[in-house]
Design a protein that fits this description.
This is DoxX family protein. This protein has 194 residues and is of the alpha+beta class. The chain has helices at 31-37, 78-82, 101-118, 130-140, 151-157, 184-192, and strands spanning 11-20, 26-30, 45-47, 52-57, 87-92, 121-126, 145-148, 163-168, 171-177. The radius of gyration is 24 Å and the shape is elongated.
Length: 194
């Protein structure tokens, strides 16, 4: 989601359309010309309409652009969850209706152990509605916090329903299909207790 060091972002040119109040003359200036000439100091000139923005040089294109993680009320938690400097277990179930319920139960137990013994944050990401998610939480007695995102990036993250990602400081340390998630002892000895 972030442009790596040394890579350049897209480069744009912004054009302002200006009109002189006294002479009625009109002209276009780029943002650089606008600043260099200090035309904004002349009260006779005013900007007409919105400036136009044109791509002049394509830069680095981050692989993930459309990931927005929210809670049920729509508050954006993307940055908080992704940039957590500690381990986080992220369970991805893009469709709760089709999610493997036995796997959900196993992951719930894993989350409970990880949180109680190592204070690991565990979250469930889904694209379902908040009301469907609430019913699912109650039915399955889920321990993890629940957040919402669009199904497309969720399917790109983990193809399984559910799948598991281990995140730390914005980096995916590992990810698993629900069939091959390590047990709590394996995770704690390889990651958490170090």
């Amino acid at each position: 989601m972030v442009i790596p060091p040394g890579e350049k972002p897209d480069e744009f040119q912004i054009i302002y359309h200006l009109k002189n109040k006294a002479t009625k003359a009109e002209k276009d200036l780029s943002d650089k010309e606008y600043l260099k000439t200090e035309i904004w100091k002349d009260n006779n000139w005013e900007i007409i309409g919105d400036p136009t923005k044109t791509l002049i040089k394509k830069g680095y294109d981050p692989k993930i652009k459309d990931l927005i993680i929210t809670d049920a009320s729509g508050t954006d938690y993307t940055k908080e969850l992704i940039e957590n400097p500690y381990y986080s277990l992220v369970f991805v179930a893009y469709n709760l209706k089709d999610a493997n319920t036995k796997a959900i139960g196993d992951l719930n137990a894993l989350a409970l152990n990880a949180t109680q013994q190592f204070n690991i944050r565990s979250v469930l990401l889904t694209s379902n509605s908040a009301s469907d998610a609430e019913k699912f939480i109650k039915k399955n007695n889920l321990f993890s916090e629940i957040f919402y995102a669009d199904a497309v990036p969720l399917k790109s993250m983990v193809r399984a329903n559910p799948g598991v990602m281990l995140l730390k400081n914005g980096v995916i340390i590992n990810k698993w299909h629900f069939h091959n998630v390590p047990n709590f002892e394996q995770l704690s000895s390889k990651y958490f207790s170090k």
